[in-house]
Amino acid sequence: MDMSQYLEIFIEESNEHLQHMNQIMLDLENRPDDLSLLNEVFRIAHTIKGMSGTMGFTKTANLTHEMENVLHLVRSKEIEVSDQIVDILFECFDTLEEYINHLSNTGEEGDLDSTELVNKLKAVEKNRGFGGPALNETVEEEPSTSSAVEAGSSSNDEFHLDVNDLPDNIIDNALNNGFNALKVKIILNEGCMLKAARAFIVFNTLEQFGEVIKSYPIAEDIEDERFDNEFELLFMTKLDEEATRTEVMRISEIDEVVVKATELEASGEAVEVVEEVKVEEVKVEQPEKEEKLNLKSTDKKKKPAQSQGSKGKTSKTVRVDINRLDNLMNLVSELIIIKTRLEDSENTGSTQNMNEAVEYLERITTSLHDAVMKVRMVPVERVFNRFPRMVRDLAKDLGKGIHLNMSGEETEVDRTVIDEIGDPLIHLIRNSIDHGVESMEERRKKGKPESGTVNLRAYPDGNTVVIEVEDDGAGVNHEKIAEKALEKGIVSRDEVESMSQNEIVMLLFKAGFSTAAEVTDLSGRGVGLDVVKSKIESLGGIVEVQTEIGKGTRFIIRLPLTLAIIQALMVNLGDEKYALPLNNIKEITTIQSNSISKVQDQEVVLYRNSTLPILRLPEILQVPNIDQDDKEELTVVVVRKGMQEAGVVVDSLIGQQEIVIKSLGKYLGGIHSVAGATILGNGSVALIVDPNQLF
Amino acid sequence: MSQVLEFVIFKLCDEYYGIDIQNVENIEKVLKITRVPYTEGHIEGVVNLRGNIIPIIDLRKRFNLPAKNSDDESRIIIVKAKGVTVGMIVDSSSEVLQLENVDIDEAPAIKGSVDQDYIRQIGKSDGRIIMLIDLMKVLGIEELDEE
Fold first, then answer.
1. How many Å lie between the alpha carbon of A17 and the closest alpha carbon of chain B?
2. Which of A229, A230, A267, B10 could form a Cys-Cys staple with B93, CB 3.0–4.6 A?
3. What digits encode the pLDDT tens for the residues A97-154?
4. Inter-chain CB proximity B53 and A663 less than 8 Å
5. Which residues pair with A597 in a beta bridge?
6. Which residues of A participate in catalysis according to the annotation?
7. Which of A378, A396, A412 marks a domain boundary?
8. Do A9 and A101 lie in a common domain?
């Protein structure tokens, strides 16, 4: 069966489960005794195992299987939850995430090897938590005792047959009625040719004396010869163990028969004992299963490869609240109604009707716009919920105590923003923890609580969404910043002297700036905040910093609610129309052409006591047939990019308008100074200028 | 085994060209084209096709043929290949032709008026010579991928 159609669902669900698991494990670390948390992780591991098994993703299935085993031991109190176990679980979680990511990118599971991790888990199982050193030893020897050896260790006395899933009373009844419930293991001769037939004879023989309740592997598999040289049966009979053995041994080509009575334990009275048995069974089962799965995976591999061609990556999806979709549907039906109404009024020729209908149409389109925008919105939770884990790891690495408080996770942002905002936020948080929050010792000296606090907040503010990253650390010392900037040659001494404190702090965002005395692998490579800033600006947002020495620093990111629809200023250049995003525009003014002077081949004008570079947009955009030299007065739109400003000369202004941003597509992608295109009221296309690329 | 292939036939400078119908989305009258800066010469600009922005190339310019202003006969053939949708301006287009593969020859190495690279095969139908274009090369998608 072609599974590719389920792949998307699988990925979506797995991601959800993993996310959930992540949260729970973080809780688990703080409350290791909370059994409900453990149960939850166990349940998730089990679900993922089931799903990935069905999909044929053997590595994922194997790993989750081992996780399950360990978690089971923890649940049954055989192992204490230690840091070590939590760390291993986190590692498993990372690996699983890796698999799922790889899957969603390529449709295949990838070659990431989890053997070591599986071995670690196995080691934990074996040691039953006898502490660290023992664990390490076994980890080292484990690779050699790989599946082959383990398969050998499954001695003949051990049974795979699981009687626990039978209705409790079957065995009870049998025993009460004088029957014996026997587990029978039949080992066929190596040279046995027709294994299925031989098994059939065994079944037949036994049925003469009693009833075969269950078999391992299942009866169908046995019929199809899908077993190695041995199989197991649960046999209800009046015969005793020895007699059963003799009966079976009479059949030729059988090497050995092991018969074992099933005790009352299976009836569910002594749960703990049973569960232990179960665990062991599972463990022994593992190597065999691996082999089986490998076999399966070879013929399964062909199928994903085929579907690969038609569908390289899984498409991006959004989960939508059904209410929102209903709302959308309603609006569309209204739209259809209004269409008929317009048609009618056209026939009757009544202007009043027509006007009413148009007004109504306007209202609907506005609501429709809102509704569609809402569909595109996703809560920032999606980004936020990976941070607790990151903060935990980071704090551990750096030996700092960090509390992460998050609020406003439910704040909704456009999907496109969500995808892009993750990295900048990670950077800012790392920054806060690495540079902002002081070491424990230092904090103690300052009389602050030993653990630092990082607050991550999101809230809507008018037409924007604000995300704040705040720490209660050392704050930014602007003198130090100025010094550093001078040292790196980013600014001159004169410039520094004329700068306000805030402006100096903003130097943090200059390329090539890093205040960390020591470069750690986390931050301080000098490719930090400037990247954050440009990323956020490319999303149409802005970054601000507020800081107080000794108290802490707050980074404030302001993002537009959506990227798909923006306010823009429409301008004429020659015969062409262009759109300038309004949030980049500072003001509009006129200047006299004779006030323009040239400095190093760059036209500048003195405007409000500072020099403003002049950019002639028609020239930059290669507009044909322009002659503006004879104009005395130039219309100038002052655009800003961070702290820089420039005057952009346009021919004339049309006005402010809401525009829908459309991409130019792959074929024309990445054109200089053009951010995209939009469709105007008359159906023609206008290009959107990207002011960030102009200078 | 003879195999029948279908081609959309169009004209440039009174010569017949064909394009595999599999790649053709639809054929439009010439729409208002918006110029895009910083593009190669044969890219005319973009149009709004039912809410989608589609880049347009002038096939005459692409084939280094003398330029001609569009008229009533001019059409834009919307083609799709490798996930990109592009419109091509042609002098006219009005028929779909079925060609058996016996009627299709490899393009001979003769210097024609069109850059040899863009012509993949030559088709014959009722004494007409039809040049079957290599869409990937015409669109320059191969170049695009290499970049």
1. 33
2. B10
3. 888 888 877 777 777 777 777 887 777 777 654 444 433 433 333 333 333 333 333 4
4. yes
5. A604
6. 46, 68, 431
7. A378
8. yes
